[in-house]
């Protein structure tokens, strides 16, 4: 729990860090690290604590200027930690981090260019039209999400969601 004096001493540091002062940003991240570790230890698996802390500090540095109300810094910081812990838990549940050191690595399955082209074409043809449209806009036409939203007359979040779903469907189709 932060006291009023701690909160007040963070204000000038936050302002300086947002203003581009690298030393202030380093100091802010160093001061926050202990709290972030404590919070991550309560919400992450033991093996994921350091990963969550590092990613949180990176995101804090990157998006500090997006914070609208400086007084909300601690809550914002803890929300980032919680999201990182949740993301790491989901990754484990989805078996993205399968690691078996005793087992030999499987041989990569190499497909010829024609087989790969045929599989990718079939995966794209299996998509509903609205998913195929956003996938082609993004990956073939290289439009930004904002440009896609404008062209489709949709909200940015809806476009991102639809693009994510389209890519997930293609990935699922191509999975062996």
What is the compact description of this entry?
With 176 residues, this protein is mainly α.
Sum up the structure in keywords.
mainly alpha; Rna Polymerase Sigma Factor, Chain: A; Arc Repressor Mutant, subunit A; 8 helices; single chain; 176 residues; 0% strand; 70% helix
Topology:
Elements: H1 4-18, H2 22-43, H3 49-63, H4 73-93, H5 113-125, H6 129-139, H7 145-152, H8 156-174
Q: What percent of residues adopt helix (DSSP H or I)?
A: over 70%
Secondary-structure-derived class: mainly alpha
- Approximate shape: extended
CATH homologous superfamily heading of the largest domain:
RNA polymerase sigma factor, region 2, helix turn helix motif
| Helix-strand string | HHHHHHHH
Count all strands and give the number: 0
Descriptive report:
By secondary structure, the protein is mainly α. It has two domains: 4-93, RNA polymerase sigma factor, region 2, helix turn helix motif (Rna Polymerase Sigma Factor, Chain: A, Orthogonal Bundle), CATH 1.10.1740; 113-174, Arc Repressor Mutant, subunit A. It is built from eight helices and no strands. It has helices at residues 4-18, 22-43, 49-63, 73-93, 113-125, 129-139, 145-152, 156-174. Helix 1 (4-18) crosses helix 2, helix 2 runs antiparallel to helix 3 (49-63) and helix 3 (49-63) crosses helix 4 (73-93). The model has no long low-confidence stretch (mean pLDDT 84).
